[in-house]
């Protein structure tokens, strides 16, 4: 899946990257750029993006570049009850570099 133009994205729970819109408050932090989503296996999903984030009616000068990788450990090991355990790994670059990994239990 390839998206070009304005789009919204969230990596994990949104601590590293979250773009969203609230029309009542006049907030829109959409990203203008390119996003590529790829699922090579049922247990692995990758999302990469690059672009500039909206700031009011303009776009910021900084360039966002990020990679989000979701690996479903339970599905690979066929652990039954643990199929909701996911290992989420994302890298995010925006005039600096941040790296985050954690276990996420989605119900």
Word description of this protein:
The protein has one helix and eleven strands, in the order βββββββββαββ. Helices cover 5% and strands 61% of the residues. The strands form three sheets. Strands 1, 6, 7, 8, 9, 10 and 11 form a seven-stranded antiparallel β-sheet that branches. With 107 residues, it is mainly beta.
Q: Structural class per helix/strand content?
A: mainly beta
Net shape: elongated
**What is the number of helices?**
1
| Largest sheet geometry | 7 strands, antiparallel
Order of helices and strands: EEEEEEEEEHEE
Which whole number gives the mean pLDDT? 78
- Measured between the Cα atoms of the first and last residue, the distance is 26 Å
Helix amount:
under 10%
Which regions have little confidence, pLDDT < 50, spanning 5+ residues?
Answer: 94-107
- Portion in strands: over 45%
Total beta strand runs: 11
Which value, in Å, is the CA radius of gyration?
15 Å
List the helices and strands and how they pair.
Layout: E1 2-7, E2 10-11, E3 17-18, E4 21-22, E5 27-28, E6 31-41, E7 44-55, E8 58-59, E9 64-71, H1 73-77, E10 85-93, E11 97-105
Antiparallel strand pairs: 1-6, 2-3, 4-5, 6-7, 7-8, 7-9, 9-10, 10-11
